[in-house]
Amino acid sequence: MLRIKMPSILVLLITLLLSNTAYSTPSDAKVAGFAGADYWQVVKQGSEGRTQDKGSESGQLINVAGEEWRHWRNQWITPAGIFAIGGTLAILAIFYLLVGQKKLEQPRSGQLIERWKRLDRANHWTVAVLFIILAISGLSLLYGKFVLKNLLGNSMWADYMLLCKLAHNYLGPLFVLGLLFMILRWIKHNMFNRTDLIWFLKGGGIIGNAHPSAGYMNGGEKLWFWLLTIVGLIVCISGLVMDFQNFGQLRETMQISNLLHAAGSLLLIAASFGHIYIGTLGTEGALEGMKTGYVDETWAKQHHDLWYEEVTKKSHKDQ
Amino acid sequence: MARMKFLCDSKRCIECNGCVTACKNENEVEWGVNRRRVVTINDGEPGETSISVACMHCSDAPCMAVCPTDCFYQTDDGIVLHNKDLCIGCGYCLYACPFGAPQFPSDAAFGERGKMDKCTFCAGGPEEDNSPEEKAKYGANRIAEGKLPMCAEMCSTKALLAGDANEVSDIFRERVIYRGHNDGAWSMSEEDLAYDATQQKA
Questions:
Q1: Is A278 domain-assigned?
Q2: Contacts with B187 from chain A: Cβ below 8 Å
Q3: What is the pLDDT of residue A30?
Q4: Of B20, B42, B195, the CB nearest to A33
């Protein structure tokens, strides 16, 4: 015992005598390797170690990115979505009460003009129905637990949420296909021009009796088209990233995708209320076009005068 | 009431993976799912350190905060458990968890992950204690029997400690004091928490 102890006491004494600095900063390589502050800093930065576990990212002890994701999702996107959707609904309700429906100013002529082909309408309604299903299931995934859980009770709640998830994950890719088809088919109608600038400057004639000119699509419709194209594609791509996690995306990729997906789709849902309002309650005769494919001459003249002229000129030529 | 915690003493862990094996055996965890894993940093280099990690049963658990179906709950002992009947396998708990604790039995297209599985602190689930249903879904419920998690109980070097946070930190504090640190390991100075007098060189 003494034999072992004597040298170590000597070492200790020599250490104390010779190196005051070594005693106060014991952070040389040997110590830093142990689980001290430096070590945890490296671990917190997500450095990977070796493990027998074959799971994805299992070599990482700590991944702090999830906390950031939680913060953005729960503290910002969740309340912002309520404001966006609630605010849009409130504005539309107030607008309807104050201004009311945009009526046809002339009596219907009874003369019908073809506006949407069968394929256009099939495409529109497919995308629309999928959009609504995805919106309801998506909103349930984000907000359901605050409202529905207590209303439904555990077992119905579980079934409903599973249905939402399955609908979202399996119908989502179909929506992507429908939207892509729609973008390709309608992009030629939706290039902005000078007419649209004037249309926007006159506020689209939404209030009052101004009648800004419009071609086949007016400025507002084009805006909705490009919103669906740009934000819609972001939502589609980020959705696919999360839906096909089997390709081995890392958590951080899916966290960012989730934020883009949630923010983008909440924006689209809020905007879609505007689209639905204008297409149904807000404008007399607007729904007919997408329902039957034909609109009344009077409606065409009032809302899409340049298109109306184009169509009539063409039909005169044909005769 | 106790506040249950895990603590892995990184200076004692020898990466034997006994805790992983004990956990898998005790809870009959599915193939491909590991509720606990051992990670070695600086493997094969001086200063190699191993740590056993599983669900840390956070007080403010991120998984709980983001779960769309609200399937998580915390017991009076602070153990974070979940109800597999409510789990839809969306994977959000995995996005949120800093420790990579939530595990999924499947990894198929269209987000088909199956129901999430994670460390229960050997405390089972919402079913009746030690019922066959509970056993099948969540594994053992040792807490109901007054026992601690199997991983810690089986740890050969007693690196992995489990139990009431006060008890666990008392044990760890005592160890650190015996290791010779100046201020009982709770220093905020630059000095290393794991300072070891016996390892110092002149």
A1: yes
A2: none
A3: 41
A4: B42
- Read off the pLDDT of residues A192-243 as tens digits, 9 standing for 90 and up: 999 999 999 988 887 777 789 999 999 999 999 999 999 999 999 999 999 9
Q: Where are the domains of chain B?
A: 4-199
> How many structural domains is chain A composed of?
1
Residue B62 in contact with residue B97, Cβ under 8 Å? Answer: yes
Which is nearest to B13 in space by CA: B143, B160, B117, B126?
A: B160
A with B: how many residue pairs have Cβ under 8 Å apart?
190
Q: B47-94 pLDDT, tens per residue?
A: 788 999 999 999 999 999 999 999 999 999 999 999 999 999 999 999
Give the span between the Cα atoms of A257 and A234, in whole angstroms. Answer: 9
Instruction: Determine the distance in angstroms separating the CA of A108 from the nearest CA of chain B, rounded to an integer.
Output: 50
Pick from A229, A221, A226, A227: nearest CA to A304: A221
Best probe of the B interface among A51, A175, A240, A251, by most B CBs < 10 A, is A51
Does some domain include residue A46?
no
In angstroms, what separates the C-alpha of B117 from chain A's closest C-alpha? 13
Q: Which of A267, A277, A265, A281 is nearest to A133 (CA)?
A: A265
**Closest-CA distance of chain A to residue B89, Å:** 9
Taking CA–CA distances from A43, the nearest residue in chain B reads B41
Residue of A nearest to B16 (CA): A52
| CATH number (domain holding residue A248) | 1.20.950.20
Contact A281, A96 (CB under 8 A): yes
Q: Which residues of chain A are within 8 Å of residue B70 when distances are taken between CB atoms?
A: 145, 149
Nearest CB neighbour to A60, from listed B40, B90, B100 = B100
Q: Is B140 helix (H, G, I), strand (E, B) or coil?
A: coil
Cβ density class A158-183: b for 16+ within 10 Å, e for less: bebbbebbebbbebbbebbebbeebb
> Six-digit token pair at A114?
């073809």
Does A299 map to a domain?
A: yes
Determine the structural domain holding residue A156 and report its residue range.
66-318
Cβ(A174)–Cβ(A130) below 8 Å = yes
Residue-wise pLDDT tens digits, A158-204: 999 999 999 999 999 999 999 999 999 999 999 999 999 999 998 88
Residue range B4-199, CATH number: 3.30.70.20
**Chain B partners of A57 at a C-beta cutoff of 8 Å?**
100
Tokens representing A205 are 């004639």
